[in-house]
Specification:
Layout: E1 4-11, E2 20-25, H1 33-43, E3 48-52, E4 59-64, E5 69-70, H2 74-86, E6 94-99, E7 102-109, E8 112-117, E9 121-124, H3 129-136, E10 150-153, E11 157-162, H4 166-170, H5 176-186, E12 190-195, E13 204-206, E14 208-210, E15 215-218, H6 222-235, E16 241-246, E17 256-265, E18 268-276, E19 278-286
Pfam families: PhzC-PhzF
Family: Belongs to the PhzF family.
Keywords: Isomerase
Length: 290
């Protein structure tokens, strides 16, 4: 029996440190969905990517958290294509992935890998805003001036929550059960609170909580940074490039940096690409029971 090899690749790192680790299985042909879920649970990282052959794109990617399959995953996509390119399995500056919700383009810019996301869908929360505040342990008075939470979906849905200060972001006390109920009700991956820094090093500093998918907190979330960049374009600053920092306020900090490029036309976002660099830290091998 051939061993299953999982490459642990840290995506959205900063100069070779930090980032968000994903497990990447390069040859997932023949693995059943149940076996993939078992492997993802045993590895225990926030996401595991399974790469297999595709007849409609360069590769088929499937993503599993420790508890569920999800349609898209930013850091696991960046991890996968960074690894594929370093192993010489991708040539040129473009590639593509097949997912359970259709195909997405991949672009390489130097050492960075960028993944395509869909145009944003914005939904105001109305009376559900109070449920968001309760879930994060905050009050309405802690929101950034003139901004409100909003559900934003570019393939995965998140509620972005604008806060006034870095201290508020760092000292959040999220209620996992409340976030799970909100996620079920609104069809979310999780909550994405953020602040607007004034040091010029990034456009936002953020955290991501997704307990419904077995992720208490994540170091870098490309599929949340995309929605946040769209929100910032819509509500804060009309530009087409954003830098989002994440991971610095976790119990075990893992600072990460996500770049987002928006494609604009007639003042609207046509599509977007989120990306960054990645590095491989180790390999895991084991023999899986049939």
């Amino acid at each position: 029996m051939e061993p299953i090899t999982a490459h642990i690749v840290h995506a959205f790192d900063i100069h070779g440190t930090g980032g968000n680790p994903a497990a990447v299985i390069l040859d997932a042909n023949g693995l059943t969905p149940g076996k993939k879920q078992e492997i993802a649970k045993n590895i225990g990282l926030s996401e595991t990517a399974f790469i297999s052959k595709s007849s409609v794109a360069d590769f088929r990617l499937e993503f599993f958290t420790p508890t569920k399959q999800i349609a898209h995953c930013g850091h696991a996509t960046i991890a996968s294509f960074s690894l594929l390119r370093k192993k010489g399995l991708v040539q040129g500056d473009r590639s593509s992935k097949e997912t359970i919700e259709g195909n997405r383009d991949i672009i390489f810019e130097g050492e960075k890998v960028f993944m395509e996301q869909a145009p944003p869908e914005f939904t105001r929360l109305g009376t559900l805003e109070d449920k968001v505040f309760e879930a994060l342990g905050i009050t309405r008075h802690e929101l950034a001036d003139g901004l409100v939470p909003m559900k934003v979906d570019t393939g995965n849905a998140f509620v972005v929550v604008p806060l006034k200060s870095v201290d508020q972001l760092a000292n959040l006390t999220p209620d996992s059960n409340a976030i799970i109920e909100l996620s079920k009700h609104l069809g979310l991956i999780g909550l994405y609170p953020f602040v607007l820094p004034h040091d010029g090093n990034a456009d936002a500093r953020s955290r991501m909580f997704a307990p419904y998918y077995g992720i208490p907190e994540e170091a870098a979330t490309g599929m949340a940074a995309g929605p946040l960049a769209c929100y910032l374009y819509s509500q804060v600053q009309s530009k087409d490039n954003f830098v989002i920092k994440q991971g610095e306020f976790m119990k075990e900090p893992s600072p990460s940096q996500i770049h987002v490029h928006l494609t604009l036309g007639n003042g609207a976002i046509k599509n977007l690409f989120a990306g960054g660099t990645a590095y491989t830290s180790k390999q895991l091998e084991w023999f899986s029971k049939p």
